[in-house]
Amino acid sequence: MALNKRQITISIVSHYQEKLIKHLLDDLENFCNKFITVIITINIEEKFFLNKKYSFPIFFVKNINPKGYGSNHNYAFMKCSTKYFCVANPDIRLNSNPFASLTKEIELYSAALISPMVINEMGDIEESVRKYPSISSLFLKFLNIKKEFIYNKSNLIINPDWVGGMFMLFNTEQYRTIGGFDERYFLYCEDVDICRSLLKSGNSIIYSPNASVIHSARRSSHKNIRYFLWHLTSFFRFFIKWNFLKKIVK
Questions:
Q1: Tens of pLDDT along 17-60?
Q2: Which of 55, 80, 169, 206 has its CA 20 to 30 A from that of 113?
Q3: Secondary structure of the chain in the HEC alphabet?
Q4: Going by DSSP bridges, is the β-strand pair 84-88/8-14 parallel, antiparallel, or unpaired?
Q5: Domain ranges of the chain
Q6: Which of 221, 220, 215 has the alpha carbon at shortest distance from 91?
Q7: Residue pair 28/106 in contact by the 8 Å Cβ criterion
Q8: Sign of CA dihedral 121, 123, 127, 128
């Protein structure tokens, strides 16, 4: 399916990340400007200035009080009138247009959500396609211990348990049907939870290696005990909500 009109709304949330977002906007201008609309949520900082004009519409949302990841994207979604809704982290960069392939495949496979291959700045594939979490996997993450990917790095389109929230392209109607992200989470596990919700409602999730984005991850939970505790709290909320308590230690 050719993208020949504004069919994608991209939601980006800023936490003192004006510089990162400007780089991402430049990439979007270079590769995707004809078929996107962007919503930028100013979650913390007082001011946010764009020093150039872009050829695609950009709308701003300014929070009076900081909101969580899911709440911010759900609020941005209220302004979405396009066929697709994309959630993108500020630290995403593009070196090509990922949407042509992603929109074609989300339709071909009748999926509710699609995620591209995520690579880091060194060109290595990140672990953005995952099995459901466990306590052991959480502590390995905190200790920054590398492990083999559950899903291999082949060039196959697959149906994973969940995909990372740094870049997610949703079918707008399916996002609306499940009510978007669960706002009871504040920072972590929203991506795991929404994938679980989509699967439980009979939808499919796909990962496509035919498109890629670059991710410069901050990984605060590896370095800061407060972020790690938020991460731990979110994991237990997920386990309790979906009755995973018998499966948390593997």
A1: 999 999 999 999 999 999 999 999 999 877 788 888 999 999 99
A2: 55
A3: CCCCCCCEEEEEEECCCHHHHHHHHHHHHHHHCCCEEEEEEECCCCCCCCCCCCCCCEEEEECCCCCCHHHHHHHHHCCCCCCEEEEECCCEECCCCCHHHHHHHHHHCCCCEEEEEEECCCCCECCCEECCCCHHHHHHHHCCCCCCCCCCCCCCCECCCEECCCEEEEEHHHHHHCCCCCCCCCCCCHHHHHHHHHHHCCCCEEEEEEEEEEECCCCHHHCCHHHHHHHHHHHHHHHHHCCCHHHCCC
A4: parallel
A5: 8-131+153-218
A6: 215
A7: no
A8: positive
CA distance 182 to 180: 7
Mean pLDDT of the chain: 86
- Residues 89 and 214: their CA atoms lie apart, in Å, by 11
Global pTM reads 0.87
Torsion-angle region of 102 (φ positive above 0: left; ψ -120 to 50: alpha; else: beta): alpha
Round to whole Å and give the CA distance between 171 and 194: 13
pLDDT in tens, 61-87: 999 898 999 999 999 999 999 999 999
What is the length of the chain? 250
Locate tokens 């990372």: which residue?
Answer: 164
Q: Which fold has domain 8-131+153-218?
A: Spore Coat Polysaccharide Biosynthesis Protein SpsA; Chain A (3.90.550)
Q: What's the token pair of residue 79?
A: 């302004």
Give yes or no for a contact between 167 and 27, defined as CB atoms under 8 angstroms apart. no
Q: Would you give the end-to-end CA distance of the chain in angstroms?
A: 42
Is residue 202 within 8 Å of 110, Cβ to Cβ? no
